[in-house]
Write a structure and sequence with these properties.
Its cofactor is FAD. It comes from Wenzhouxiangella marina. It catalyses: 3-sulfinopropanoyl-CoA + H2O = propanoyl-CoA + sulfite + H(+). With 387 residues, the chain is α+β, with helices and mostly antiparallel strands. It has 3 domains: 113 residues, Orthogonal Bundle (Butyryl-Coa Dehydrogenase, subunit A, domain 1); 110 residues, Butyryl-CoA Dehydrogenase, subunit A, domain 2, CATH 2.40.110.10; 148 residues, Butyryl-CoA Dehydrogenase, subunit A, domain 3. Helix content is 53%, strand content 15%. The protein contains 10 helices and 10 strands. It has a 4-stranded mixed beta sheet. The chain has a 4-stranded antiparallel beta sheet with strand order 2-3-7-6, covered by helices on one side. The protein has a two-stranded antiparallel sheet with strand order 9-10. A hairpin with a 5-residue loop joins strand 2 and strand 3. Helix 1 packs parallel to helix 3 and helix 6 packs antiparallel against helix 9. The protein is globular.
Length: 387
């Protein structure tokens, strides 16, 4: 087993780290406080190649691999998880599915715009009454009599980047009687008539990553904007989430790394009873456990990224790898940030220190793109073969 990174992987990691530390970290607290969408930074990240890392150069991307993507995402999320969320959605949930299932025209039109950072992409699966149970969606798409377009009526919730997205991958049922097999995927242009946005959600964490509800009322979607075939939508959605969960695992590792680094520095500098608190056994135990959980999460995430790369060649599934990485990394991030707040004492509870932001940001990694409970179900079902 070779743990060495390629030159390209090291280059994208270094570029992301430099941008994150110099352009994102200094303004992260301000964006968190205001909830303002960091559009200028996102466009700069697009110019740097961070919005389409795995996208081939032919479609405006960097043409790098999944390991390079997660390494870059870890660096961005260590500076600010909200910036990382926008980056993850653009890369994993938007571009990934179109590259795998889209036509050449769709790749040129939609992927290029997002990979360059010129436009923002989003992924619309969740509905107010169906989160984990995505197959029970109420959104409907009806093919016109002349077969030229679909009329879509839908209400979607918790749409990351929704307030600013130009294009979305949206899922709606074209055959309600068929259940999951009747769901179809569509490319949505938010500037078309029939599309509207609801309120922006007031969130606990990742506050600069804007989230909202969207509605489509008699939205006319040209048939050429259907992604994949009729009834293939649920398969596309789950396939995209397999990849997306690796991105969330990387996000969790980045948050955990930032919390660990802050805790390590504080343990070395803070003194109590005439000694650095890092000399106390209880603090040493926290540091040791934080480090072990962090590195275990990192290795599982990198292995999942490697498994995704192998799947391109072999066709093998990497569902379990992605679910394990997300489960372990998200719970590690939540535990490590909790310990970081505790280790910092009263200062950990203050907005003067960044660890309280890390703590708030970490929680969402246990929820979106499949809760921890769903990940355990996925892993167990795949392992046992039982439903």
């Amino acid at each position: 087993m070779d743990f060495r990174l390629t030159e390209e992987q090291q280059m994208i990691q270094a570029a992301a780290r430099d941008f994150a530390r110099n352009q994102i970290a200094p303004v992260a607290a301000d964006f968190d406080a205001s909830g303002e969408f960091p559009l200028d930074n996102i466009r700069a990240m697009g110019e740097l190649g961070l919005m389409g890392i795995e996208v081939p150069e032919a479609y405006g991307g960097s043409g790098l691999d999944t390991i390079g993507y997660v390494l870059a995402l870890m660096e961005v999320c260590a500076a600010d998880a909200a910036h990382g969320t926008i980056m993850s959605v653009n890369n994993s949930l938007f571009c990934n599915g179109i590259l795998k299932y889209g036509t050449e025209e769709q790749k040129q039109k939609y992927v290029r715009a997002i990979a360059s950072g010129e436009q923002i992409g989003a992924y619309a699966l969740t509905e107010p009454q169906s989160g984990s149970d995505a197959s029970s969606m109420k959104s409907r798409a009806v093919l016109s009599e002349d077969g030229s377009h679909y009329v879509i009526n839908a209400r979607k919730s918790w749409i990351t980047s929704g307030p600013h997205a130009r294009y979305l991958v949206l899922f709606a049922s074209t055959d309600p009687a068929a259940g999951a097999k009747g769901i179809t995927a569509f490319m949505i242009d938010t500037e078309r008539e029939g599309f509207s946005r609801g309120k922006t959600e007031p969130k606990l964490g990742i506050r600069a990553s804007a989230t909202c509800e969207i509605e489509l009322n008699d939205y006319r979607c040209p048939v050429e904007d259907r992604l994949g075939e009729d009834g293939q939508g649920f398969k596309i959605a789950m396939s995209v989430l397999d990849a997306g969960r690796i991105g969330i695992a990387a996000q969790a590792v980045g948050i955990a790394q930032a919390a660990y680094d802050a805790s390590l520095a504080y343990a070395r500098d803070r003194k109590a009873f005439g000694k650095e608190i890092g000399t106390f056994q209880m603090i040493q135990q926290k540091i040791a456990d934080m480090k072990c959980k962090l590195e275990a999460a990192r290795l599982l995430t990198l292995r999942a990224a490697w498994a995704k790369m192998q799947a391109v060649e072999t066709g093998a599934r990497f569902t379990v790898d992605g679910s394990m990485a997300k489960l372990v990394a998200s719970e590690a991030a939540m535990w490590i940030t909790h310990q970081a707040v505790q280790l910092h004492g009263g200062m950990g509870y203050s907005k003067e220190m960044p660890v309280e932001r890390y703590f708030r940001d970490a929680k969402i990694t246990e929820i979106y793109e499949g809760t921890s409970e769903i990940q355990r179900m996925v892993i167990a079902r795949m392992e046992t073969g039982l439903r």
